[in-house]
Amino acid sequence: MSEHLPNLDLTLFDGSRPSTPASHKPRILLLYGSTRERSFSRLLVEEAARLLEHFGAETRIFNPSGLPLPDDAPVDHPKVQELRDLVLWSEGQVWCSPERHGA
Q1: How far apart are the first and last CA of the chain?
Q2: What is the dihedral of CA 60, 91, 96, 36, to 10 degrees?
Q3: Looking at residue 69, what DSSP letter applies?
């Protein structure tokens, strides 16, 4: 890799690695914002999950269907708790938001 990027100092990457390897695969939560049946955001998130799994990550996708609007439900709402649990489980997140024209 460095032969193609001669200005890259590979020693700078050594300090960013953990001193002990993780005992599990990287945990990635993927979120999308559309509840439409044929949501392109969901399709993109599913493809991203497939690629992340190919590279060795464990992925989970949060389905926003049934998630209440902010300030519209108690904190113990099942979908709110599901999202909180997934956020605590994850070590990284991928967010995909639908585009809104004229909104």
Answers
A1: 44
A2: 30
A3: P
